[in-house]
UniProtKB/TrEMBL annotation:
It comes from the Bacteria. One of its GO terms (molecular function) is Gly-tRNA(Ala) deacylase activity. Its main location: cytoplasm. A Gly-cisPro motif from one monomer fits into the active site of the other monomer to allow specific chiral rejection of L-amino acids. It is found in: Cytoplasm. An aminoacyl-tRNA editing enzyme that deacylates mischarged D-aminoacyl-tRNAs. Also deacylates mischarged glycyl-tRNA(Ala), protecting cells against glycine mischarging by AlaRS. Acts via tRNA-based rather than protein-based catalysis; rejects L-amino acids rather than detecting D-amino acids in the active site. By recycling D-aminoacyl-tRNA to D-amino acids and free tRNA molecules, this enzyme counteracts the toxicity associated with the formation of D-aminoacyl-tRNA entities in vivo and helps enforce protein L-homochirality. Homodimer. PANTHER family: D-AMINOACYL-TRNA DEACYLASE 1 (PTHR10472:SF5), D-TYROSYL-TRNA TYR DEACYLASE (PTHR10472). One of its GO terms (biological process) is D-amino acid catabolic process. Belongs to the DTD family. InterPro entries: Daa-tRNA_deacyls_DTD, DTD-like_sf. This is D-aminoacyl-tRNA deacylase.
Amino acid sequence: MIALIQRVSEASVTVEGQVAGTIGKGLLVLLGVEKGDDEAKAQRLRDKVLGYRVFEDEAGKMNLNVQQAGGGVLVVSQFTLAADTKSGMRPSFSAGAAPVDAERLYDYFVESCKAKEIKTETGIFAADMKVALLNDGPVTFWLQV
């Protein structure tokens, strides 16, 4: 399971002209699910995402996690994160989880974030989404479990 996280001042996702999810300060989480991923991996990744210290404290050091900074998370499914790009000029998606498994684990990840009492917004699984963000920093990290 993969999360590409970006510290944002604001982010939103729009589907068919309608805003599906929006946050102010927080993390945009692009989430990719691979074959063999399970709920245990989803929990470990959730803990890593929510615990990762990427927000500045009063001394200006990246020392606060998203909850400590008072932010939210916008979770967007992104199967392309599971792409194999090692050879050729076209990505292979053979490492990606089957859509039914990916959606189940995406939903599980989202619900487990909400269970931690953090504002959690989403896109719509498998939809053609337009993601807008104001990257703060820029600060971007690739997290994988």
